[in-house]
């Protein structure tokens, strides 16, 4: 999961699970969270018994954020939350989401003018409920240059293009490849494949997870590609690895 826009999520029914590397979070009905743009993570939506998972999600386009905050003094230098920002229950939030439910149950597309009005209402409510929101949403800077080794070690399992990895580390593709070679003494593609396979091997042999359960978590698009790369690396298939102690 990586969003190009900030997202406000309110859980109506079921359970929402978020994970960032080794950190896991669970959200139940009535809970609200704000997920920043360019945030790497995994999202799992779980039904409740026979009822499907239901939520309200609002995305904030940059042009509407700029319009909303151009006359407001936001503290964009405040430290940004890592992962997501969980919002406490608040009467204004409850009222906001109750008013949005009918729109999500409609089959017709909403008029653009109405969408802009409702997004502006969301932003006004968020500003009133949590001061940290304004600092996050009023910042429009691109990702800055970060420690490449630390970032890659933490995020290698996400199936992103090299261009996206470069962008998230504050580098052009050319600079990313150059810095990567200097840091790891190999190419990004080879390093990523090696790390993902080592991670998958540990999950199968040590954590006793099934290949079909972990190939996506390890950064592979499909099971067949994962199985081929795994056997090429270790000399035996992922299924055979399940019998190793």
Automatic annotation (TrEMBL):
SUPFAM superfamilies: Homeodomain-like, RmlC-like cupins. InterPro entries: ExsA-like_N (IPR054015), Homeodomain-like_sf (IPR009057), HTH_AraC (IPR018060), RmlC_Cupin_sf (IPR011051). SMART domains: HTH_ARAC (SM00342). Residues 146-244 form the HTH araC/xylS-type domain. One of its GO terms (molecular function) is sequence-specific DNA binding. Keywords: DNA-binding, Transcription, Transcription regulation. It holds the Pfam family HTH_18. The keyword Transcription regulation applies. It comes from the Bacteria. PROSITE patterns: HTH_ARAC_FAMILY_2. This is AraC family transcriptional regulator.
């Amino acid at each position: 999961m990586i969003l190009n826009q900030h997202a406000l999520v309110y859980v109506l029914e079921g359970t929402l699970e978020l994970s960032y590397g080794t950190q896991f979070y669970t959200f139940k009905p009535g809970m609200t969270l704000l997920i920043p743009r360019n945030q790497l993570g995994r999202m799992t939506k779980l039904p409740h018994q026979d009822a499907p998972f239901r939520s309200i999600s609002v995305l904030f386009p940059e042009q509407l954020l700029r319009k909303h905050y151009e006359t407001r003094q936001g503290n964009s230098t405040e430290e940004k939350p890592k992962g997501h920002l969980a919002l406490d229950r608040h009467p204004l939030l409850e009222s906001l989401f109750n008013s949005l439910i009918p729109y999500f149950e409609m089959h017709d597309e909403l008029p653009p003018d109405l969408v802009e009005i409702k997004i502006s209402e969301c932003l006004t409510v968020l500003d009133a409920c949590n001061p940290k929101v304004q600092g996050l949403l009023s910042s429009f800077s691109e990702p800055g240059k970060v420690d490449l080794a630390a970032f890659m070690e933490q995020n290698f399992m996400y199936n992103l293009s090299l261009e996206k990895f470069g962008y998230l580390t504050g580098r052009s593709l050319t600079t990313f490849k150059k810095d990567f070679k200097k840091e790891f003494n190999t190419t990004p593609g080879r390093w990523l494949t090696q790390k993902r396979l080592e991670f998958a091997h540990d999950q199968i042999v040590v954590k006793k997870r099934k290949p079909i359960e972990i190939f996506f978590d390890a950064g592979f698009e499909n099971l067949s590609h994962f199985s081929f790369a795994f056997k090429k690396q270790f000399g035996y298939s992922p299924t055979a690895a399940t019998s190793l102690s």
